Amino acid sequence: MRRFLSLGLIGAALSLGAGPALAQGKLRAEIMHWWTSGGESAAVQEFQKAFNAAGGEWVDAAVAGGGGDAARTAFMNRLAGGNPPTAMQFNTSKQFDDVIAAGQLIELDDVAQKDGWKGAVYGPVMDAVTRNGHVYAVPVNIHNNIWLWYNADVLKKAGVAPPKTWDDLFADFDKVKAAGVVPLAQAGDNWTKALTFFNVLLGEAGPPLYLKLFKDLDADATKTPEFKHVLETFGKLRNYVDNGVQGRQWNQAIGMVITGQAAFNFMGDWAKGEVVSAGQTPGNPVGCIAGLGHPAYWIGGDVFVFAKQSDPEAIKGQKLLAHVMLSKETQVAFNAKKGSVPARLDVDNSKLDICAQQGLKILSENKDVVKGFDLYLTPDGVGQVYDAIGQFWSDPNETTDQLAGKFAEILKNAKQ
Amino acid sequence: MQPRFRNWHVQLALLPAWLIVVFAYLGTMVFTVRMSFTSSKGIPIMDDVGLRQYDRLFHTDRWTISVENILIFGLLFILGCLVLGFLLAVFVDRLARFENTLRTIFLYPLAMSFVVTGLVWQWILNPALGLQANVRNWGWTSFTFDWLEQGDRAIYLVAFAGIWQSCGLVMAIMLAGLRGVDQELWKAARIDGIPTWRIYLHIIIPALAPMFITATLLLATAVVRSYDIVVAMTAGGPGISSEVPAKFVIDFLFTRQNIGLATAAATVMLITVLVVLMPWLYLQYFRSAPGARRAA
User: For the residues B202-221, what does the mean pLDDT come to?
Assistant: First the structure.
């Protein structure tokens, strides 16, 4: 658990473990990440196996909670205290920009050069780990953050078909509700409500409005009738959740769909990891729709960065880890369990499930592929979006115009 | 020169403590205030942007909500603990038997951290898992208790859980105070035929003033640093409706990577605490020292 706030104790650092060292000729690496749910830890095991087989020694430093908030806090603490872990997970985003600017990360240019990342890795993802021509992180997967998951058995029992449009969805909701099942499983954390919101934005209004808002930071776009319609649709979703939202984690929400307690859930494709670890095959009975109403791919994903180390052996371990994580075999094994698609496109994707195939099709058409909004906004800006959406969700008196005004403010601040 | 400064060996022994005070407390405090005038994001930098962070802070909904919440929480928590703790102490004090058992039971929640308290009450109050779900299973299907889901109610539940945990501590303090009350007082009051409740109200409670001050001070520090109980119980939700200042600081310090804004919030907290506590501490412990120590 995080510590109390002691007033002014900013410089205080937690020392949580020993630094990297050479143990019995093996390259020891301490890897910090937040992959702790069932599906996630099965996936991370694949990295561990591959790294250990390549002559490394994987020391796991998982920190659970808050979609990575807790882990990133712990990392920043240890970095400030001069005892960073060997490798750290971040989302494919601006989360690690500050650490780069402070000169705390090693460059991976030589590994990238040798392993030919440039041609192999999906272009936008490669851009996301490159700053000023240097590679600072190893991308390990591509997630689509906007999926609608449904339980086909529940829908069949309620006598409805999987939706094609948002109107369909609300019609389905009503029938499912009448059948006595929770229509929409929603988790409590604000980032999960934000994901639901972006499902509406990208699915109902389509990528152009999204890009106008978050790429161009165009505050006037918040005043359009389209955006108002998006906010109204999002607000309507609140009528179809049960009252156990508060305190529910994302994996519990998708769990409700897997077990048939709920019909629908909006979540990124890491939810598929939970489906697989529950012993089901994606598609039956839990089906997937990438961007309801408007098939789209919102690129998210995970990267690993490597904090500067004084020990040359530790640096060797870091580079070995970077090499192993993006090697073809590891990529296929890891992503099959994680629910994502490999970060490099030159691997055999035929074994991936039907949801991943659906995603790959959108990726290869390269038409409605957008970057995550955390690539356009700083963590501060992202947090403001979470706050605004979370506040709107829990306050029935807040109007859509008020929420639109908050978005305008956030975009204006981000532009400065 | 005052006599205590002449004992240099005593001062020498205290040197480590002094160093800690100067560097760990005062030093970091000064650093925090300095950071609040910078534009630091994830890593501290030393520029000067004046009061920009404060300007943004007071225009941030989340901060305003946090301040409102800490006032609601603080008031309910302190008053609730004092009243309930005192009543429990009177109850235990007047019992002829079972005193040890009851005292243990009332003190037991204090053995748990706020995190455990928050988590347990989150489970109990969660409509889909706890009280509501169970009562409905017993047959009362329309029973609804979902304050944890309601933005304008959640903070009251946090205060309730806090009272549940901490009123045992107040009871222990009050009980010690009650035992210290001179029996002659009771005898004199009984001879005058004063009803028991009036003895408590007009004689015992004033006599316990130092106990109330100690308890209030302890509870007030718990209010200012309240963070873990909120994180464990509501995570600041639903939405941002049960956020508190300490959580604001921690979140912006690390996940939101805005050290400037976080330290501005910490500085506002520090100033508020000083403004509230300083005159009061001065009155209690320094100016009227002989009087205040009379009953202790």
Answer: 90
